[in-house]
Design goal:
The protein is α+β, with helices and mostly antiparallel strands and about 130 residues long. Helix content is about 35%, strand content about 15%. The chain contains 6 helices and 4 strands; from the N terminus they run αβαββαβααα. Strands 1-4 form a two-stranded antiparallel ribbon.
């Protein structure tokens, strides 16, 4: 993360330990490719690809959020002039992204392993009760 500002360093480190409550998702159907969101992303998780027309790739560039890298900071959604970026719950983001993505940029860059879902941990009271029963 070469452009990570110090004030976002802790959030980026926590991203490795736990998943964010919400993630940014771009509706590519309404995105103009203005790339304002790219300037505000503190962890550089917004990918930009060439437009759908191979003869003129700079027109209507495709923007996509790299969901495994997103920390859920909401800055891209806040500053998007076209309101095409939405913050969605973690699980909803992974469900809706394929519907809103006209063509994927992230998948073209590299293949990733699927996101591991954390196993549900028992509540503190249940753990304490199990410890006292032992």
């Amino acid at each position: 993360m070469p452009f990570l500002e110090p004030k976002y360093q802790k959030a980026a480190e926590l991203r490795v330990k736990r998943r964010p409550k919400q993630l940014a998702v771009v509706n590519q159907g309404g995105c103009t490719g203005c790339m304002v969101c790219v300037d505000f992303c503190p962890v550089d998780c917004i990918r930009v690809g060439s437009g759908p027309d191979a003869s003129n790739p700079t027109v209507h560039k495709a923007i996509q959020i790299d969901l495994p890298a997103c920390i859920g900071c909401t800055l891209c959604a806040k500053y998007c002039p076209w309101d095409t970026i939405e913050m969605l719950a973690f699980d909803d983001a992974y469900e809706i992204t394929p519907e809103w993505t006209l063509y994927s940029i992230v998948d073209e860059l590299w293949e990733r392993e699927p996101v591991q879902v954390e196993a549900a941990r028992p509540a503190k009271r249940e753990r304490a009760r199990k410890e006292t029963d032992s």
